[in-house]
Design goal:
67 residues, mainly beta, DUF1918 domain-containing protein
Length: 67
């Protein structure tokens, strides 16, 4: 599954401080080999160079307006 900018996704990367968090794709980048990586923006920062297999679509009911 490919993702587009502004998609809400959940990051699954045990080495990331944002593992398990929901964020928004802010940029997609394609390498000369056709591999796509993403920049994900979270409430407390961003993660760059995220491969597609480390992402899953966020549930539609994901809370986007935390108090």
């Amino acid at each position: 599954m490919s993702f587009e900018e502004d998609d809400r996704v959940v990051l699954s990367d045990k080495h990331s401080e944002f593992d398990g968090e929901t964020g928004t794709i802010t940029q997609t980048m394609e390498s000369m080999f056709g591999d796509v990586t993403y920049t994900i923006s979270f409430e407390d920062g961003q993660e760059t160079g995220v491969p597609e297999d480390a992402l899953e679509s966020a549930p539609d009911d994901a809370d986007t307006d935390e108090a």
